[in-house]
Specification:
The chain has a domain of 85 residues. 53% of the residues lie in helices and 2% in strands. It contains 16 helices and two strands. Strands 1-2 form a two-stranded antiparallel sheet. Helix 1 crosses helix 11. It binds iron/sulfur cluster (SF4). Iron/sulfur cluster binds next to helix 9 and helix 12.
């Protein structure tokens, strides 16, 4: 992708960051008082999960573990439990590992350089750039799915970016960044946040609201008559997938404070449904039983269930003991 319009970058930066200052959401990890650790936790949680689902979990997490050392002192299973229903729970394990590394190698403080961040578990190039920028004000070029979509439309004139991130997109993103110099760092970070927010709130995947967009007058996609996507994006199947089954198993383990018999998780045909001793006392028992009933009601063969449980154990998300299956210790 290359620049197709004679864009006035200065005006673009001004319009998008001005819109963001007026319309951007007041999210706790964006507030000046938020610590680098708070920003880092938000970036892990937001990788695959929308803001509205992240907010309550982030707030509970930060209250319980306001510093990396607090999380590092607890078993990984507690991180997985607190992750709740955010999905992709390996992120919780990686975040707990990262907290331990920060505690042991960085004196308990989130490192501020891109290279040190990139060396932490669970931190890829996007997350390292985002933490550098949003926690430390270093204007790395940040590119997430929302930013890619805005770039594809605004500059590329296409409804969607390519299915996978390309080198051309990376070059374009760098080209669109405000240049260094007076206020360059602050503007660069504001630009990253603003384009991301524009993609999340206005230039959305399914129904972009171009009438409310601060840069509609410069948009190549609008100028081209809003052409259809140049490919059909693959939908993400959910029903019947291993992901669905693994998620349901994790829900049982999170709700149970006692080990759960493996047969209850993987043998539906031959084992009686949900004995009363699953979970522990009163409320947790009710929640654990409900989660187990949901798991067992899914239309999946025992072989798929066994495969999913083995996958959770080998990923470190579950442990099998002589008493049954639990969250990791
Ligand atoms: S005008 Fe429409 S397509 Fe173009 S950037 Fe704005 S919201 Fe996206």
């Amino acid at each position: 992708m290359s620049l197709t319009l004679p864009l006035d970058l200065e005006a673009l930066h001004h319009d998008v960051t001005g819109w963001f200052a007026a319309e951007g959401r007041d999210l706790p990890w964006r507030r000046p008082e938020c610590s680098p650790w708070g920003v880092m936790v938000s970036e892990f949680m937001l990788q695959q999960t929308p803001v509205v689902r992240v907010l309550p979990v982030w707030e509970q997490w930060m209250e319980r573990w306001p510093e990396p050392a607090a999380l590092a002192s607890e078993p990984s299973g507690e991180a997985v439990r607190a992750w709740g229903r955010l999905g992709y729970p390996r992120r919780a394990l990686r975040l707990a590992e990262a907290a331990r590394r920060i505690t042991e190698e960085h004196g308990g403080r989130v490192p501020s350089t891109y290279a040190d961040l990139l060396a932490l578990p669970g931190v890829g190039s996007y997350t390292a750039a985002a933490i550098s920028c949003f926690a430390f004000g270093i204007p790395e070029t940040v590119v997430d799915t929302n930013i890619r979509r805005v770039h594809a439309r605004l500059v590329g004139g296409r409804a969607l970016p390519e299915p996978s991130y390309t080198a051309a997109e990376a070059r374009l993103a760098a080209e669109l960044m405000p240049s260094a110099g007076h206020d360059g760092a602050e503007l660069g970070c504001a630009w990253n946040a603003a384009v991301m927010e524009l993609g999340a709130l206005v230039c959305t995947a399914r129904s972009p609201r171009c009438g409310e967009c601060p840069v509609a007058g410069a948009c190549a996609w609008v100028a081209a008559g809003r052409p259809e996507p140049h490919y059909t994006p693959k939908g993400q199947a959910w029903a019947g997938t291993d992901r669905q089954l693994r998620g349901a198993m994790m829900a049982v383990l999170r709700a149970s404070d006692a080990p759960v018999e493996a047969a209850l998780l993987v043998e539906v045909a031959s084992v009686d449904p949900v004995p009363a001793h699953v979970g522990a006392q009163s409320d947790p028992a009710t929640e654990a039983e409900a989660a187990l009933r949901r798991l067992r009601a899914l239309p999946a063969a025992d072989a798929q269930r066994r495969r999913c449980l083995q996958g959770l154990i080998s990923d470190g998300l579950a442990s099998e003991t002589s008493h049954g299956v639990t969250l990791p210790h």
